[in-house]
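Backbone-to-sequence.
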């Protein structure tokens, strides 16, 4: 099934965020059917035994007899996996339905929790327990195609998937409206209903880092957990708008 327009994701996102979420229009349902048909070209196999990383901001405490006091230690295993009955809302999961978010590198996992200098971060290694079928939503995250007229179906599909990839990769601030997650959450639910195990999408931290949201929190087992302290952070800026100048009144 073809997408109706190269802007189909934008129209879908606006409807889900601002108009209808649970009882969708025929146009939104047609969009989801097109996504289900075309996502088959983006499936990736993750082998059993693959190592991923997961970070949590903060730490636990353990008693140190030599100083007769408690010292920071990594969070316990129960704190390094999502709670099955109290899941917070995320980019891929709605509130109450836990997904397991992991990263392909340790630095990516730590960066994703937005630590500050001096913060302590618990970082765990996890191992997949079986081969996984993942929808790759990282292919065209840097592209933002624009057309003045409707392109052929294959170009429409490329444009729509570029917008989907960007939606998953877009950095989120802690103050963001959680309604902004609605469209990507519906897509994740679609992929889950199609029988896939998760989604891969690009991290905004570093060139080599990727995030994976696994739909079943038991698909990977915890191997170990360590505690890290943030020593330094590098931030780069680009000017996004022209400056204005204030003229003093005489």
């Amino acid at each position: 099934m073809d997408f109706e327009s190269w802007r189909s994701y934008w129209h879908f996102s606006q409807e889900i965020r601002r108009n209808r979420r649970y009882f969708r229009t025929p146009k939104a349902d047609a969009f989801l059917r097109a996504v289900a048909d075309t996502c088959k070209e983006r499936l990736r196999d993750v082998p059993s035994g693959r190592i991923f990383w997961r970070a949590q901001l903060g730490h636990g405490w353990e008693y140190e007899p030599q100083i007769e006091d408690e010292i920071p230690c990594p969070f316990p295993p129960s704190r390094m996996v999502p709670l099955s009955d109290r899941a917070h809302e995320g980019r891929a999961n709605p509130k109450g339905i836990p997904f397991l978010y992991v990263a392909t590198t340790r630095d990516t996992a730590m960066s994703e929790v937005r630590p500050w200098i001096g913060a302590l971060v618990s970082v765990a290694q996890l191992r997949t327990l079986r081969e996984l079928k993942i929808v790759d939503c990282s292919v065209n995250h840097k592209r933002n195609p624009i057309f003045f007229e409707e392109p052929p179906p294959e170009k429409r599909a490329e444009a729509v998937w570029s917008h989907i990839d960007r939606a998953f990769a877009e950095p989120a601030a802690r103050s963001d409206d959680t309604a902004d997650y609605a469209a990507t959450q519906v897509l994740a639910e679609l992929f889950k209903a199609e029988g896939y195990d998760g989604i891969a999408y690009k991290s905004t931290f570093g060139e080599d880092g990727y995030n994976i949201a696994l739909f079943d929190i038991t698909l990977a087992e915890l191997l170990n957990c360590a505690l890290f302290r943030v020593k330094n952070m590098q931030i780069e800026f680009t000017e996004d708008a022209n400056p204005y100048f204030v003229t003093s009144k005489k």
